[in-house]
Structures are given as C-alpha cells and as structure tokens.
Amino acid sequence: MKKGSKIIYWIATIWLALGMLSGGIFQLLQMKDAVGGIIHLGYPAYFVSILGVWKILGVIALLVPGFPVVKEWAYAGFFFAMSGAVISHTISGDPFGQILPRSLRSS
Q1: How many C-beta atoms lie closer than 10 Å to residue 41's C-beta?
Q2: Could you tell me the CA-to-CA distances from 64 to 26, 42, 56, 61, 105 in Å, in that order?
C-alpha cells in the first residue's frame, strides 16, 4: 500500500472509530437520548446496551494490529448497524434531516 493510501486509510479508520466509540459509550451509559431514540424506533431499551458493546468491540477490532478477518467483520457490523439505523428511521417516518448524524446536520 502506498504511503498516501495508508494515510487516507488511517484517517478514515480513526474517524470511524471515534464516531463508533463515542456512540458506543453514549449507549452503554444509557443516556436519555440514546434510550429515547431506540424506543422511538420501536426497539426495546435493552437493545441500546447491546449496540454499545458491539460498537466498542468493533472499534477494538479495527485498531488492534493484525486479524484482517476480524477487521472485515467489524466493518461489516458497522455497515449493518448504520444501514439498519437508516432503514429504521425511514420506516418510522423520520424526516431525512433527522436520519443524518448530528455532526452532519446543519444548525
């Protein structure tokens, strides 16, 4: 892998890891918005803890050297979690702007 490609890979990986880690911590702490959001989508409140654990384990898998198959599963898990969230918000009737992560919404 070229040096430029490695830099882009690690910037994207760290950005994803920080987003998933912060979300996982937010969910593990059972923050009011996390629990309320899950209930709004029709899922049980305990699902927040499960997602939080999976996200944190996925971040660890991405950042630990080696284990390429585990990294692939972590990326796949993040894809399924995020695409599932978009689908759940869409089915719940949430407007498109509310589906985007808060960091991407305009003020």
Answers
A1: 16
A2: 22, 34, 12, 6, 31
What are phi and psi for residue 67, nearest 5 degrees? 55, 55
Please calculate the CA angle 90-11-73 and round it to the nearest 5 degrees: 60
pLDDT digits (tens, 9 = 90+) for 62-85: 999 999 999 999 999 999 999 999
pTM for this one? Answer: 0.83
Residues 6+ apart with CB under 8 A from 15: none
- Secondary structure (3-state) at 94: coil
Looking at the chain, the number of H-run helices and the number of E-run strands are 5, 0
33, 43 in Cβ contact below 8 A? no
The Cα–Cα gap between 13 and 64 comes to: 12
As a whole number of angstroms, the distance between CA 91 and CA 43 comes to 13
For 42, residues 6+ apart whose C-beta sits below 8 A from its C-beta are 88, 92
Rounded Cα distance, 78 and 95, in Å:
22
